[in-house]
Write a structure and sequence with these properties.
Layout (H helix, E strand, L loop, with lengths): L1 E4 L2 H12 L7 H23 L12 E6 L4 E6 L6 H9 L5 H8 L4 H10 L11 E9 L6 E6 L4 E7 L5 E8 L9 H12 L6 E11 L6 E10 L16 H12 L5 E9 L5 E8 L15 E5 L2 E4 L14 E6 L8 H4 L3 H19 L3 H21 L4 H7 L1 E4 L5 E3 H7 L6 E6 L3 H5 L5 H5 L4 E4 L2 H7 L5 E2 L2 E5 L11 H10 L1 H11 L5 E4 L8 E5 L9 H6 L9 E5 L4 H6 L5 H18 L7 H15 L1
Helix pairs in contact: 2-6, 9-11, 10-11, 10-15, 20-21
This protein binds adenosine-5'-diphosphate and magnesium ion.
Length: about 625
């Protein structure tokens, strides 16, 4: 008999389960049943593909036994089972980096936290919310020896050889003193129906009941053993649409999402013809916690003719749809399709294409309230899609939302187009880190004055890469206002006239600033600010941020052009100023304040501060 220490993280997790997560304890049933169902799926696959098991008379089953006298509940399956190593690896350690992420994302709200348990692949441990001690007796299919894994949910566990007839797993749970509600037949049935009704295998409840027979004085009470199937035991996606109600879809979602929330939306399709398959997809109301982790758990399971193939294939859907949960069941894929070849399989490629179309179609149809939730959770991954999925780019552009200079909240490109200048067909945008800085950017002044809407893109990391490569949408060209001329408030002739008038001033400023700016010129894009900086539109690097980001490199600095507002008091006064020191100071301040307004930093911050102080001093 060998005693082992739990991995440190599990030790922590166990403490958490026993002491903190006291609400929603019933989910332990959902988690154990889900594990049994997975184990049955795995054996079912072996049975059909591995000659070793050919001819075995098997039908998958989960049974739950309630023993009031003993104060225990036992959950058994005839699935794939575990050997000694599996028990230690699967239950004694956590392979996935999930646990740590789980711990970090705990909110302290017991209900929410227990909802996270299943999401992080730590479902088994939920049993310690209600158990004093647990024995897992398991025999792996094809092996001769069975093993028992026992623990009291403290720091240690034991593994020893035991005897067990057939393959599968039995989980014996000695309930804590005040968790005896789970010995009640009705309570257990209710929980199983709630979370596991559409598990594909029968769940049979074994319990005892007092039965009274006979008349008045000859009444006799005895305990009888009963056995009853308590779930529907049909995989939901095998049922015709006409038989399903909204509640059924939602119930099934709860079982596959290991959660308590309703989905935002779902889509169920059976495709017939040359290529036959069923897809059932859900979009969660909340993005999965691991959505931005490289080791995220994909949400879609692949079946072939109802036989489970994999739940760990990140390519069943494009990565930008990694928040989608559900099932793909193909009639045409070979059962023993190798995982490596799955990606090159034409049938699967076809299913995937169809799936993406349906998912995007459903997103497009969300009502405005749901769309708002969708945008909040998934706008960023949709932008990833725009960058990667050229086939569905147009649809993704219909779905993506942006902030706007014209109103609060998020708008679609179609909203923009519906009120834009349909002769010019241009969509203006500005990209940066900070919404407030962008909204107050001097570059927006002329657009505001001319009543032209500008999209405010403050998701800099993503927008600066994705937006430049959008190009156009419905024949409207997207234009970065920092690299185009301002809307013409002046005619070309007028502008040239002004440029000439201020030529000596702009030249003088350029001389002071030297290499810091590529050019200094007058502009009509400003109304309130004295100056602004723009990226040089003729610079070949300007549109290449995306390329640099893709290569994992920093974008080299593009030269800036300083534009000054000839109508501003300060510029008028500067023109003809005799005091050279003051002129230099002011020229630098024009550049540095313009940079600050765009969220850029002055080159020499200390010098900038000194100049401001000196000017303020003079003004006083
Ligand atoms: P997850 O199910 O997300 O992997 P769990 O903590 O629920 O996480 O289970 C851990 C692992 O233990 C499972 O992945 C599986 O390998 C194994 N396991 C748990 N229950 C069973 C069972 N009834 N039969 C076979 N293996 C099981
Ligand atoms: Mg599990």
């Amino acid at each position: 008999m060998a005693k082992h220490q739990f991995q440190t993280e599990i030790g922590q997790l166990l403490k958490l389960m026993t002491h903190s997560l006291y609400s929603n304890k019933e989910i332990f049933l959902r988690e154990l049943i889900s594990n049994s169902s997975d184990a049955l799926d795995k054996f079912n696959y072996l049975l059909l593909t591995d000659p070793k098991f050919k001819g075995e008379d098997w039908s998958g089953k989960i049974s739950i036994k309630l023993d009031k006298e003993d104060g225990s509940i036992t959950i058994a399956d005839n699935g794939i089972g575990m050997n000694e190593e599996d028990l230690m690896d699967n239950l004694g350690t956590i392979a996935k980096s999930g646990t740590k992420a789980f711990m970090e994302s705990l909110t302290g709200d017991a209900k929410k936290d227990s909802n996270l348990i299943g999401q992080f692949g730590v479902g088994f441990y939920s049993v310690f919310m209600i158990a004093d001690n647990v024995d897992v007796i398991s025999k792996k299919a094809g092996d001769d020896q069975a093993y028992m894994f026992s623990t009291e949910g403290t720091g240690e566990y034991e593994v020893k050889p035991v005897t067990k007839e057939s393959h599968g797993t039995v989980i014996y749970i000695k309930l804590k003193e005040d968790e005896k509600e789970f010995l009640d037949k009705w309570r257990v049935e209710e929980v199983v129906k709630k979370y596991s009704n559409h598990i594909a295998y029968p769940i049979v409840l074994n319990y005892s009941e007092e039965e009274t027979t006979g008349e008045d004085d000859k009444k006799e009470t005895k305990t009888v053993q009963k056995s009853e199937q308590i779930n529907a035991a049909t995989a939901l996606w095998t049922l015709p649409k006409s038989e399903l109600k909204k509640e059924d879809y939602i119930e099934f979602y709860k079982s596959i999402s290991h959660g308590d929330d309703d989905p935002l939306t779902y889509m169920y399709n059976k495709i017939e013809g040359a290529n036959e398959f069923t897809t059932l997809f859900y979009i969660p109301k909340k993005a999965p916690m691991d959505m931005y982790r490289a080791d995220y758990q994909p949400g879609v399971k692949l079946y072939v003719k109802r036989v489970f193939i994999t739940d760990d294939d990140k390519e069943l859907l494009p990565p930008y749809l990694r928040f989608v949960k559900g099932v793909i069941d193909s009639e045409d894929l070979p059962l023993n399709v190798s995982r490596e070849l799955l990606q090159e399989n034409r049938i699967l490629a076809n299913i995937k294409q169809n799936a993406v179309k349906r998912i995007l179609g459903a997103i497009k149809k969300l009502d405005s309230e749901k769309m708002e939730i969708f945008t909040k959770e998934y706008n960023k991954v949709i932008k990833e899609g725009i960058y990667i999925d050229h086939v569905n780019k147009e649809t993704l552009l219909e779905i993506v939302r942006y902030k706007s200079s014209s109103e609060e909240g998020m708008i679609s490109l179609d909203d923009y187009i519906s009120r834009g200048n349909s002769e010019k067909k241009e969509i203006y945008y500005i990209v940066g880190e900070d919404e407030k800085v962008l909204r107050n950017s001097p570059l927006l002044e002329a657009y505001k004055k001319a009543n032209i809407e500008v999209l405010i893109m403050d998701d800099n990391e993503v927008d600066s890469i994705v937006t430049p490569m959008i190009g156009s949408y419905k024949e409207w060209n997207l234009k970065d206002i920092t690299s185009i001329d301002a809307p013409d408030t002046k005619t070309k002739e007028e502008a040239e006239e002004i440029a000439k008038e201020f030529k000596s001033l702009t030249e003088k400023i350029k001389k002071v600033l030297g290499e810091e700016v590529k050019e200094v010129k007058t502009t009509s894009r400003l109304t309130q600010s004295p100056s602004c900086v723009i990226k040089d539109p003729s610079d070949p690097m300007a549109g290449m941020a995306a390329m640099f980001a893709q290569m994992g490199q920093e974008m080299p600095e593009t030269p800036l052009i300083l534009e000054i507002n000839p109508e501003h008091e300060m510029i008028k006064k500067l023109d003809g100023l005799k005091d050279d020191a003051l002129f230099d100071e002011t020229a630098w301040i024009l550049l540095d304040t313009a940079k600050l307004s765009e969220g850029l930093e002055p080159k020499d911050k200390a010098a900038f501060a000194q100049r401001i102080a000196s000017l303020a001093n003079k003004a006083l």
